[in-house]
Amino acid sequence: MQFRKYSFKLNNQSIAVEAPPAYTLLEVLRNVLNLTGTKDGCSEGECGACTVIMNGKAVNSCLTIMEQVEGADVITIEGLAKDYEGDALLRAFIEEGAVQCGYCTPGLMMSSKALLATNPKPSADEIKKALRGNICRCTGYAMILKAVLRAGS
Ligand code: FES
Ligand code: FES
Fold first, then answer.
1. Number of structural domains in the chain
2. Least packed by Cβ within 10 Å: which of 42, 54, 112, 147?
3. Of 35, 55, 79, which marks where a domain is finished?
4. What are phi and psi of 73, to 5 degrees?
5. Distance of alpha carbon 151 from alpha carbon 153, whole angstroms
6. Closest residue (by CA) to atom 2 of ligand 2?
7. Tens of pLDDT along 115-143?
8. Is 75 in the same domain as 14?
């Protein structure tokens, strides 16, 4: 198999990885870099479990091929987790009980983080709209909504 080298910024550090050209960002994160915080739920853009922030926007990493990642700025849940003490969103998810099995949580947090970066005090409707691509099978969404509202207050 032929490999290609990709250079990009990951969690504020410049990195270079080698991967087959057909690899997605999700495959590189999980299979090459062993960053398993980003989850693989459906591999086809339906569940949002694989959401990361790329160039300031929430994207499905399962649909993002490495060609698109060259030179980009990518933040994953591991980047967010580094700043647990100071991160209002992470604390709000825990304090509001917005996490059950946790499979959806990294993706929900990345979508929420991207929203809060451009809209620091979103309304409930704005949050629902921003998170509509993220499926959660456990919580019923009410605690997630409360957590993002709290983080934005
Ligand atoms: S794994 Fe990417 S949207 Fe489901
Ligand atoms: S907490 Fe289990 S899928 Fe959301």
1. 2
2. 42
3. 79
4. -115, 110
5. 6
6. 101
7. 999 999 999 999 999 999 999 999 999 99
8. yes
Q: Is the pLDDT of residue 8 over 80?
A: yes
**Ligand 2 atom nearest to CA at 138:** 2
The domain boundary, picked from 21, 54, 79, lies at: 79
CA distances from 139 to 16, 21, 94 (A): 38, 37, 13
Predicted TM-score of the model (pTM):
0.95
Residue span of the structural domain in which 15 resides: 4-79
Task: Kindly report the average pLDDT of the chain as a whole number.
Answer: 95
60 & 117 share domain: no
- Are both 56 and 116 inside the same structural domain? no
The ligand 2 atom nearest the CA atom of 101? 2
Residue 137 CB less than 6 A away from ligand 2:
yes
Pair 61, 91 in one domain: no
Three-state DSSP class for residue 130: helix
135 lines ligand 2 (CB under 6 A): no
Query: Is 62 close to ligand 1, i.e. is its CB under 6 Å away?
Result: yes
